[in-house]
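Example (one chain per record):
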Amino acid sequence: GWPIASMVGDSLVVMHRRIPGHNPRGAGGPHEKMSYGVVLRSGDGGKSWTKPYDLRDCMKPADRNRGGIVPLSHRFKFDKKNKSTEGYKIHLHAIVTTRDGGVVAINNHGVFRSDDKGQNWTHFSKALRDHTFPHQIVNIGPRVIDHPDHGLLVFGNWFGTASAPKLNDELVVLQSRDGGKHWNVNSHDVGFPQYEPAVFVHNN
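Predicted structure:
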């Protein structure tokens, strides 16, 4: 569920989740097939599609299961006994086609990039990870802006910790100037709880 997409050239790249559902009731325990980043491609406007590809398959084993099968931000739902603080500090997902023709996909498993229209992927193993991102988990909206002056921009909100998720009044901005390998962060108090902000560019 929860599909999002981006066009790169004549190819449509869709990313979605493969999880038991939104509600943990009846979901069962952690399962190896649970993934927060499955991608499919279409080169004919959606008439036909490639087989689903799990972005975790391009991750190193130690990164793929860092802290457990269930990603950090969803352990409170689907793996309550797991108290590990290791993992990627991202909840939900976003995708963009970059100005240089790449595709950057961000999800609960981290940051991924393809430079051949979604056929092959690279995982930036240290991006937004527990020991490289000394902040709360970030709950992101679906869109990424590739700005000519500011680089990649992802918008979200602080999500608290894996054991105690909580929304607050700050809009969070993640910024990468190197295509998704490294990220800076700043936040702005806007006076009301944030959740999955969607953005667009207007007059630069």
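Caption: The mean pLDDT is 95.
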